[in-house]
């Protein structure tokens, strides 16, 4: 009791615990049929406030290591909800983008979700970062940029393929620019530094990165005030 159960990377189906009494009160918020409603709203609604609230509800339900959080992370995959949330990263509303990012970070605690999000959501996450050749450039708030950076870090921790995808989508350029441009906030710099440290931690990537002209010093940032333990089963537990 109280021990965290490891996620099963091979579990693509999920059966919620059988109930002996009807759900009531706050329990109604995390029943399977309600989770399906959230997913339906994410796929069908065109209203930014509804999309933000639905993604925010999923973010909150998937925060922490409680029993239903684990089931809901698996259920979102089974119900094809991951792609619906990843698609929101291209939305015109910044509030929707931030909510989607927070939801994906918590969903990525499930190892199978982490693998899928790494394959399919990294490009859209990178597109939301400042810098690069995108036109028009996105001008997202500090909170949203930090959320995206923390989500990227969660996805690439213990996930070499996602780190490769980050490199392939010009993510390294944007991360180094955040650290060295001098016009980003301390929170953004620290969050980007954590991602860069995670990337450099993969020995398999060092030679390819060096061939592209990157140096070890590009991945070394002063983290004296930053937590070095972000990612790897951390959660975005901010609420809406």
TrEMBL record:
<comment type="similarity">
    <text>Belongs to the beta-catenin family.</text>
</comment>
<dbReference type="InterPro" id="IPR016024">
    <property type="entry name" value="ARM-type_fold"/>
</dbReference>
<feature type="repeat" description="ARM">
    <location>
        <begin position="80"/>
        <end position="117"/>
    </location>
</feature>
<dbReference type="GO" id="GO:0005737">
    <property type="term" value="C:cytoplasm"/>
</dbReference>
<keyword id="KW-0677">Repeat</keyword>
<dbReference type="InterPro" id="IPR000225">
    <property type="entry name" value="Armadillo"/>
</dbReference>
<dbReference type="GO" id="GO:0098609">
    <property type="term" value="P:cell-cell adhesion"/>
</dbReference>
<dbReference type="GO" id="GO:0005912">
    <property type="term" value="C:adherens junction"/>
</dbReference>
<protein>
    <submittedName>
        <fullName>CTND1 protein</fullName>
    </submittedName>
</protein>
<dbReference type="GO" id="GO:0005886">
    <property type="term" value="C:plasma membrane"/>
</dbReference>
<dbReference type="Pfam" id="PF00514">
    <property type="entry name" value="Arm"/>
</dbReference>
<keyword id="KW-0965">Cell junction</keyword>
<dbReference type="GO" id="GO:0005634">
    <property type="term" value="C:nucleus"/>
</dbReference>
<dbReference type="InterPro" id="IPR011989">
    <property type="entry name" value="ARM-like"/>
</dbReference>
<keyword id="KW-0130">Cell adhesion</keyword>
<dbReference type="InterPro" id="IPR028435">
    <property type="entry name" value="Plakophilin/d_Catenin"/>
</dbReference>
